């Protein structure tokens, strides 16, 4: 992912705070086992765990589960790394909104606003019942904090008999690249004006994009 200096995350805390919402949904990208084939991509929820002990000390780890018959697994066996990409707060910004004061509005250049975090990860396929139950327990706690579901165990309960139908993944995080593309190189007046337009238009994603733009402006990015 191309990240110009003005679009880079200020620090690790910024992308962590952005991802610390009610749900983490993204795209798992895997190299095709056939070098001539297109990459394999899978949209899915995932859970980000922190402080997982690894060979080099504590690390972050993404965990998720997929149907056992998902064809992505035949490609995972061929490669040692994957990417998981989360993108949000997306908005299309029309050219007239971005025209400089001395430029006719119809000459303005449109752009896209978005936030995106890309994880480069190792791969651990989890196929034993206890390991899958552990991953599901993490995901239930993350995605359904209000509870309401029975515990997930490999020994019994309502979910034990369903575990053979899924395969879990643990993805140790090796690198994180974060991008917040909200015209940070433009003057404050420009960004305030665009934020106001986004809030007024109100398409899906507009207000989230405006919040990110205002936050970056207020934080001095």
From TrEMBL:
Annotated region (Disordered) at: 184-221
The secretion signal range is none
| Recorded superkingdom | Bacteria
Q: Which InterPro entries match?
A: Split_barrel_FMN-bd (IPR012349), TR_PAI2-type (IPR007396)
- What is the name of the protein in this document? Transcriptional regulator
Organism of origin is: Kytococcus schroeteri
């Amino acid at each position: 992912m191309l990240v110009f200096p003005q679009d880079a995350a200020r620090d690790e805390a910024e992308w962590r705070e952005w991802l610390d919402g009610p749900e983490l949904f993204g795209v798992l990208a895997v190299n095709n086992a056939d070098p001539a084939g297109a990459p394999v991509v899978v949209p899915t929820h995932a859970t980000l765990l922190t402080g997982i002990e690894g060979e080099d000390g504590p690390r972050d780890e993404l965990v998720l589960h997929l149907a056992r018959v998902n064809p992505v697994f035949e490609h995972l066996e061929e490669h040692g790394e994957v990417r998981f990409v989360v993108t949000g707060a997306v908005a299309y910004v029309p050219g007239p909104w971005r025209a400089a004061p001395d430029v006719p509005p119809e000459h303005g250049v449109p752009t896209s606003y978005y936030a995106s975090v890309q994880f480069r990860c190792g791969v651990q396929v989890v196929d034993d019942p206890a390991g899958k139950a552990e991953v599901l327990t993490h995901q239930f706690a993350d995605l359904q904090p209000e509870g309401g579901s029975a515990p997930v165990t490999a020994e019994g309960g309502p979910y034990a008999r369903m575990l053979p139908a899924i395969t879990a993944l643990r993805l140790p995080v090796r690198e994180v690249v974060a991008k917040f593309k909200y015209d940070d190189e433009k003057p404050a007046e420009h960004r305030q004006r665009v934020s106001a337009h986004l809030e007024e238009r109100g398409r899906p994603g507009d207000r989230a994009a405006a919040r990110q733009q205002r936050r970056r402006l207020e934080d001095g990015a």
